[in-house]
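User: Fold this one for me? It's Isoprenyl transferase.
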Amino acid sequence: MATDEQKVTPGTGPRHVACIMDGNGRWATSRGRPRLFGHHMGARRVKEIVRACPDHGVKYLTIFAFSTENWKRTQSEVAGLMKLFRRYIQREARDLLAEGVRVRFIGDRVRLDDKLVRLMDELELLTSRNDRVHLTIALNYGGRDELGRATKRLAAEVAAGRLSPADVDETTLARFLDTHFLPDPDLVIRTSGEARISNFLLWQSAYAEYEFIDTLWPDFTKAEFARVLGGFGARDRRFGAVTA
Ligand code: IPE
Ligand code: IPE
Ligand code: MG
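Assistant: Here's what I get for Isoprenyl transferase.
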């Protein structure tokens, strides 16, 4: 839904940008390096992009780090990614705190290992008073999985008699989603030339603008980020209405 908080003045930049950080594997392979090397270089870009957000009025940045489908990869790639996530949190926590970044995670934590979940919880708590940039990391996230989990919780409320089926509408469902604390994304950027959304923020992106760019994520600089954000202002977002 486009909430009041969500609406952007025409000609201005997006408040909430979501990124499908794709192309790490191809970036590494084309250099004769293991795919994990690409993931490491991709993680470095995250810092650059997060830091650039305040300069462009981007208050919310949501990044797709690991999908519910990514478990299909080799055991070694999955294990390497999980280790990278743990190390990323351990290494970046201090800077994120100091730079005013509030970090939150979306996705199903049940399948993640205990150590990683503990680090995620700690980082959320540590940065919970920050408000300069809201960074949301989608980890073991899938839009359909999220809707399934939300529906299950909603149904349990109905079964317990705390919610009436007659009162269930879009707003109710949105409250049960992992993203209940976020406005909808204004702009979704996918790198690496693939023009698909791969199960990312299905509900939330109903009225997002999309940018599919050829650059592989490890090559995605803050200059290119600025260029993409600049193009957003020219778009006529009608939300189904007719503009004068
Ligand atoms: C995106 O890069 C990162 C994750 C999905 C974890 P990929 O690993 O999908 O890179 P490509 O698409 O194989 O190049
Ligand atoms: C989407 O990229 C998931 C992340 C960026 C974390 P994928 O590389 O997994 O998506 P597909 O397989 O190309 O659709
Ligand atoms: Mg990919």
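One thing worth pointing out: Residues 20-22, 64-67, 70, 194, 196, 198 surround IPE (ligand 2) (CB under 6 Å).
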